[in-house]
């Protein structure tokens, strides 16, 4: 199988409710995502998909939804959440609400779902998403059935 991978980066904050250590506090990361796609056949130029298509579609979505904002869990009980959401709204940045805690693992699964939808009409399948939360820590969603 031939795949191609595009790396995308952004800055965001999060917190992990009920975390047993420092990650229970609001903090930020320089996230990186690796989106890996597969096609049944290479196109007439010998590619799975143009890297620019992934950058435009998935990277554009990341820029609008996740870059320079907060990725938070809906129902997070922290009393600062309403003020944080209002502050972001006043600055023109959304809060991205997840149904699960915004761990690297859950962010990888969320981005896999979104990227799959955004690339559905291109003839490619998203087969792997790796989220780098720190330079030495990542989580991976693998969509290949083994």
Helix/sheet category: alpha/beta
Taken together, the total number of domains comes to 1
Cα-to-Cα separation, first versus last residue = 13 Å
What gyration radius follows from the Cα positions, in whole Å? 16 Å
Low-confidence stretches: none
Number of helices: 3
Q: Helical amount among residues, as a percent range?
A: 25-40%
**Named CATH topology:** Tetrahydropterin Synthase, Chain A
How are the strands ordered across the major sheet? 4-3-1-2-5-6
One letter per element, helices H and strands E, the order comes to EEHEHEHEE
Largest sheet: 6 strands, mixed
Principal-axis shape: elongated
CATH first level: which class? Alpha Beta
Question: What share of the residues does DSSP label as strand, in percent?
Answer: 25-35%
Q: What would you give as the CATH superfamily?
A: 6-pyruvoyl tetrahydropterin synthase/QueD
CATH architecture: 2-Layer Sandwich
Rounded mean pLDDT score? 96
What is the tally of beta strands? Answer: 6
How is this structure best described in words?
It is a single chain. This protein has 146 residues and is an alpha/beta fold. The chain has one domain: 6-pyruvoyl tetrahydropterin synthase/QueD (Tetrahydropterin Synthase, Chain A, 2-Layer Sandwich). Helices cover 27% and strands 35% of the residues. It is built from 3 helices and 6 strands, in the order E-E-H-E-H-E-H-E-E. The chain has helices spanning 51-65, 81-90, 104-118, and strands at 3-14, 27-39, 69-73, 95-98, 124-134, 137-142. Strands 4-3-1-2-5-6 form a 6-stranded mixed beta sheet. Helix 2 links the parallel strand 3 and strand 4. The longest helix has 15 residues, at 51-65. The two termini are 13 Å apart. The model has no long low-confidence stretch (mean pLDDT 96).
């Amino acid at each position: 199988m031939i795949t191609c991978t595009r790396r995308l980066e952004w800055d965001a904050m999060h917190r992990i409710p009920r975390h047993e250590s420092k990650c229970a506090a609001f903090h930020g990361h320089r996230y990186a995502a690796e989106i890996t796609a597969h096609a049944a056949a290479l196109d007439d130029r010998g590619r799975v998909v143009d890297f620019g298509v992934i950058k435009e579609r998935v990277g554009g979505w990341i820029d609008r939804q996740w870059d320079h904002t907060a990725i938070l869990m809906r129902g997070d009980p922290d009393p600062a959440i309403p003020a944080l959401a209002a502050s972001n709204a006043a600055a023109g940045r959304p809060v991205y609400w997840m149904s699960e805690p915004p761990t690297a693992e859950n962010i990888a699964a969320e981005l896999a779902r979104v990227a799959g939808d955004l690339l559905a009409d291109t003839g490619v399948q998203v087969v792997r998403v790796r989220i780098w939360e720190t330079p030495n820590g990542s989580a991976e969603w693998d969509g290949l059935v083994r």
